[in-house]
Amino acid sequence: MLRLVELGATAIVTTDDLLYGMARMYSILAEGVGATSQVIRDVESATRWLNRVSAERD
Amino acid sequence: MKTALRVCGVIALTVMPVDGSERLPLTITPTQAFAPAAMRIRARIEPNADNRVFAIVADGNEFYRRSDIQLDGRRLVTRADGVVTFAEINAHLDIEQRNRDLDRPELIDARGATTRPDDSAGASTRPTCGEHAPPCRTRGHGDCDDR
Fold first, then answer.
1. What is the ipTM of this complex?
2. Would A4 be classed as within a structural domain?
3. Cα separation of A34 and A47, whole Å?
């Protein structure tokens, strides 16, 4: 389904190497439609990244 | 039955003002099923600075399952476990779209997720019935799935 709305930043946390790679591919594809996403290996870093991105957007 | 029961939890939090003293409507599907079975629990609450943790507990004679989600303002928190399929991701996005949550920042905790069906078979060895276990699937704001 085509989604004509701005997508919020998405942080994906995974420690699985295969899932990390697939999430990275998703992240790259998502960038193509203007979605900001990042694949990160720990929750703390993901939280910091989301805070930073949210602050930049605000 | 316990080991065969795969439990996945999905918790997402949106749009109804709720504090600890209010009743929170939950939607559970299916209401009955033969084991092994998957069930989905959905709850929606309004993000609020006073709300710190959202917990859903299923407690029975032979089953205990608890899902805790840290609340963080307007951010969506999603936890995923087991095999994650494209259909599930799409369904998650549909829910977020319906809830008008697509523009909100989201943290997807997929540390318990896998893309390999063989790994999900190992899910039966994870603590499930009668044992305290972390939620295995949490998707989306306002949605809590126990599968």
1. 0.88
2. no
3. 21
